[in-house]
TrEMBL record:
InterPro entries: PAK1-Kinase_Regulator (IPR051959), WD40/YVTN_repeat-like_dom_sf (IPR015943), WD40_PAC1 (IPR020472), WD40_repeat_dom_sf (IPR036322), WD40_rpt (IPR001680)
Pfam family for this entry, one: WD40
Keywords: Repeat, Ribosome biogenesis, WD repeat
GO biological process, one term: ribosome biogenesis
WD repeat ranges, renumbered to this chain: 269-297
PANTHER family per record: P21-ACTIVATED PROTEIN KINASE-INTERACTING PROTEIN 1, PAK1 INTERACTING PROTEIN 1
Name listed for the protein in its UniProt record: Uncharacterized protein
Amino acid sequence: MHPRMSLVAGSYERFIWGFSLNPKNETLTLTPLFSYPSHLSLIKCVAVSGSVVASGGADDTIHLYDLATAASLGSLHQHSATVTALAFYAPPSLPFPRNLLSADAEGSLSLFDADGFVHLKTLPRVHRRAVNDLALHPSGKLALSVGRDECLAMVNLVRGRRSFCCRLGKEASIVRYDLAGDRFFMAMEEKVTVHGAEDARLLFELDCQKKVLCATPAKNGLLYTGGEDRNITAWDINSGKVAYCIEGAHNARVKGIVVLTDSDAASGSDDPYLVASASSDGVIHVWDVRMATTEKLNPVAECKTQSRLTCLAGSSLKLKRRHSGTNPKGQDQTMEVICTAAINKYRDYERKTLIQQQQQQLKTKAVAVEAPTSPDSAVATVHKALK
């Protein structure tokens, strides 16, 4: 059985990083797939479905990539403001996405057909201010969004219009559906609220002590959160209590969490259950959380990108069994060299481009000094154009 588990991270340095998570000698390694300085400004969000990757940046564009070939697929330019959130919809019966939904800093949403990435519709002014996050219902018919206007909006994707909007009284930065679509979650500073999907009734309020920067649902009624506390906390959303916590998971703020699960495996204690996390200091960890309730965990795979990471996404297929508790120290040396070389290469490219632009400006000024335009000739040109 050939594994195919991938992680994609975005950074302030405009790089998008792609990794493949592979078993090697009963351990896991993060193998680099690609690194592209594709955006003109920082990357705000990434989304993965199957082998398709989308990234959104402060340059108002969405870039697309293929994990299978580690190649760029082009870009989308429908937005006129920073792309703040992305979400794919993929039917359970299909190995590839059907739609892509995006949001921007002007409060608008855009819907694309993932087959060829044809722009289907733009929903303007869903929020009066920037959209912070969006979540697609597992049915693909509805989407929730939260914005800087302190509102929660529901969008009917079948009819292509906003169907509901309410004021929250406080700005929410994250919104997520659970895997079944029966509940949704919103993060407001250090609080996470759990609501019923049918009537939005408040079920639980989770106190995370410090600001929550990322959250992702998992099987068995779990919700993983991370943020300024540098921990990864698993919450039982059926009771509203902490199931377990990986304390000190990172040395900096946790910016992204991804659950990588073999969904085809039979249930049991030997089922692979991996959680990946990324921090703002550029470190990505992969954890086997099967023993999280009984012992202190060490990451089973690790890499250092040397970038300030802003977001993390991933996809997973089947994964071979392996032993837990393996310390990955020393595994990330090759990865660190590759990432450092990629950044240095791009910085050299930027430096050369700047020098070329300066030289071109000097040449333009020199030509203007050597051949000034006389007032008489300019007037003659205007008269000729008017005739």
